[in-house]
Inverse folding.
């Protein structure tokens, strides 16, 4: 399961996004301050960071700038999406030019946010297609569909998350601890 960092200071929106993200293939860590985002990004690996711009202790753009200067564990290469009420063309251009991979003005549909997250994380993993494929095994995270050849495979949510993590890491080691964190997230 890929981890994402959500930096959103609005309590109601943050709770709603955290809940929506927790029902997907991502493990969401939600923080409300720029300082907490920096701490999380230094302490753990994330597949993507979703950053609000207007924060009580700074700006998501400051966190983005810090990342692009090499801050955090993934630093310069971590995919970043800005989520903000600032929707003027100049703001979007500025955010993208400062190193964001995407810019989504509020309000937005959760389905669009999830689709954009999947697209960014696919590209950052070198996967251009929406489908993840290893040999005859094919996974479609947008539909939670798994098939081998022409046959659909019925999996529990835990099995699906474990398989997706393995497929996304194809060719790389996945530790037992990582798998236990994924498989243990829904109880034993």
């Amino acid at each position: 399961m890929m981890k994402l960092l959500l930096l959103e200071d609005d309590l109601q929106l943050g709770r709603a996004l955290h809940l929506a993200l927790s029902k997907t293939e991502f493990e969401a860590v939600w923080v409300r301050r720029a300082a907490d985002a920096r701490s999380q990004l230094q302490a753990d690996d994330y597949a993507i960071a979703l950053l609000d711009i207007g924060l009580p202790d700074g700006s998501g753009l400051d966190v983005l700038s810090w990342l692009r200067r090499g801050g955090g564990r993934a630093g310069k290469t971590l995919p970043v999406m800005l989520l903000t009420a600032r929707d003027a063309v100049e703001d979007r251009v500025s955010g993208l030019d400062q190193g964001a991979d995407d810019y989504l003005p509020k309000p937005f549909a959760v389905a669009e946010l999830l689709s954009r997250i999947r697209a960014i994380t696919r590209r950052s993993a070198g996967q251009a297609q929406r489908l993840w494929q290893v040999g005859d095994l094919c996974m479609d995270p947008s539909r939670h569909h798994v098939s081998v050849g022409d046959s659909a495979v019925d999996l529990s949510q835990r099995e699906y998350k474990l398989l997706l993590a393995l497929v996304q890491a194809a060719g790389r080691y996945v530790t037992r601890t990582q798998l236990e964190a994924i498989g243990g997230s829904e109880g034993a």
